[in-house]
## 1
Amino acid sequence: MEVRHEGVEPKMIANNLNPSVPIHPGEMVKDEIEYRGITQKAFAGEIGLSASILNEVLNGKRAINTEYALLFEAALGIEADLWLRLQAEYNKQVAKSDPSFMERLARIRKVAAFL
């Protein structure tokens, strides 16, 4: 939902800003396990993932799916729904940063306006 204030461009209101570079939620998991002093290898072993798959998630090369989110919830006590919402928001930001996709959406909106 976009916040509006009279006389202020909606894109300039802090609640409407998107980071210039989307932050993959895996980076947040990485920060959390580092903060707790857990190595990636130990964490992977604890949750039953291969170290390479966990590393791909933590480095934004693989999405956090429902299974991973539930594993993170069990190990870290941070709700799976949060990880899934963060992943969905990341995916949306990545899509919105693709000019050709945004042009496609604009064309669809023009056609839909006449329906």
## 2
Amino acid sequence: MVIAILAAETRPELQVILVESDARKAAFLGTVARETQVKTRIHTTRVEVLAPLDADVVSARALAPLDVLLGYAERHLAPGGLALFPKGERAQAELDIARARWRFSLQEHRSVTDPAAVILAIEGLSRV
């Protein structure tokens, strides 16, 4: 939702799709979108059953370990797409596990709010 709000000012053509399986949280997101007059599409379903989105960028926060997130990203990313995943102090351990199942290029960006956290920027995703 934060991305949708920020993009409304600078990139109003950007389509932001939110996926939230919890109906109460999805309703909250709908209220925020309405109150801020931000255009979004909200899907109240689980990401693993949602039809592929062919998205340029996929992001998720506190959803699953990286190897699982990469499966979701593979399903929903367009060719050449980018996955952005904030991860905490276990990021390196999650990367080690994910590299056993996935190939990808990675850029790590240190968090400005938590010295133990990173944002993983992943491209070129494919299964091993």
## 3
Amino acid sequence: MHNSVGLLTEIEQNNRFYLTQIKANQKHLMNDLVYISNNIKTEKIIIDTEKSHGRINTRSYEIHPINMDILEP
């Protein structure tokens, strides 16, 4: 799904949850998420490891309670 401000605001206003993957080329959003990760207590960390195609991939997910007001427009 897309990471537009309008979409994320609508989801937040309806008290819904949204899972997304952000890559480093989404600079402003990535900076916000790094700030959240460093400054807001993590509720839960999930580590997922899978083996496929001769590789072992490990992904970690952090769950944070956030309020849209803390993000810059």
